[in-house]
Amino acid sequence: MPSLPSFSKAAAPPPPLPPKPTWDPRPVSSIRPFPWLRPTIRIRLTLLYGGMFLMAGIVLLTIIYMLAADALHDGSTLPLKILGGKFQSTSDQCDLPTKTSGPLLQAAVDQCLQAQRALALNDLLNRSLLALLGLTVVAFAFGYAMAGRVLAPLGRITRTAQRVAGSDLHRRIELGGPDDELKELADTFDEMLDRLDRAFESQRRFVSNASHELRTPLAINRTLLEVQLADPDASPELAQLGKTLLATNERSEQLVEGLLLLARSENKVVDKKPVDLAEVAAQAVDQTREEAHGKGVELRGVRQQAFVQGNGVLLERIALNLVQNAVRYNVPEDGWVEVTTEPQTGCAVLVVANTGPVVPAYEVENLFEPFRRLRTERTGSDKGVGLGLSIVRSVVRAHDGTITAAPREGGGLVMRVVLPL
């Protein structure tokens, strides 16, 4: 049986896709049906200065109109009056021939009228200049006041930025008023500060948590090593290995403590108390005296009483780190470290100078970077963990102070810490 031909039905075209909705990143509540009615700074300034120009023009036109009317009145007044067929002069500027008439009198009257008009125009010009000068002064004063009012939000933004530059990331502008370009700039700045604050807080929290988590195993290791070293039956090789491991563990503990202190010192010091900078420096010198004596380094300097507002423990860390660095990075023989404090106008100064190797000026700033030393990229000696000056700079900034380092002639450094009272 022959097969019947099959007729395939033509495939129907796919239905058209719905148009993709346009997306606006702004929330629906902020999208206005008439965006050209937004009170932008450009429109406000246009209306403000246009209105000022219109008002100044109206005032100036009114003054000129009144002065011109007065000048026309004075310039068109006849310089004489007729009394019973006789003429009497009424002008102080003209001397009319009242005894005569005809062409001579007419010529004298015309000449007198011209003199009166010239005098009236001259008076009009002088008064107009005075009015223009007064109106200019008023316009400048009004414009200055209006410009200050318009630029007040910029001043608020600038002051907030200056506070933020002082490591106070919790400040916000929170600008009110119309939804114009300045408010948009302030809101964008606030959003950026929020993100920066969250990022720095997350970083500090991470370092703090990591340091705390590392403390426990390091403390356990130290305890086990000390117990092993206290065993009288331990072999000399085992005792030497225990001492080496204990020194390594101690170095790791110092690194963890330094990281924790560095993370904390990035914050502002809120709980401030009066601290004598001379006493802090003296304690740092006493704690370093034995190490300095072992290296043959002389400790000297005059420390005057100078009180500052701050945290005593952190300020002691500043002096201790500076003095320890000055002792450890010194010359092998006849070295010295000079620690001085002195009060100055509005601040107190701590200066730590020492002998030591010659430091190029271009390498001074690198000394404040974490894990950096002179002519080395990473720490690799037993002089410290490479966080001393980094901690010092962070603590000084937390106290709103400044620290500067300068190479000393002949070798060594001069560290100068300035703290506000």
UniProtKB/TrEMBL annotation:
Query: Which InterPro entries is this protein grouped with?
Result: HAMP_dom (IPR003660), HATPase_C_sf (IPR036890), HATPase_dom (IPR003594), His_kinase_dom (IPR005467), HisK_dim/P_dom (IPR003661), HisK_dim/P_sf (IPR036097), Sig_transdc_His_kin-like_C (IPR004358), TCS_sensor_his_kinase (IPR050428)
Entry annotated with the keyword Phosphoprotein: yes
State the organism's lineage. Bacteria, Bacillati, Actinomycetota, Actinomycetes, Kitasatosporales
Q: What is this protein called?
A: histidine kinase
What reaction(s) does this enzyme catalyze? ATP + protein L-histidine = ADP + protein N-phospho-L-histidine
Q: Which region ranges are annotated with the description Disordered?
A: 1-24
Q: Which organism is it from?
A: Streptomyces kronopolitis
The gene designation is cutS
Give the location in the cell: Cell membrane
Q: Name all HAMP domain ranges.
A: 148-201
For this protein, the record's Pfam families field holds: HAMP (PF00672), HATPase_c (PF02518), HisKA (PF00512)
Which UniProt keyword terms apply here? Answer: Kinase, Membrane, Phosphoprotein, Transferase, Transmembrane, Transmembrane helix, Two-component regulatory system
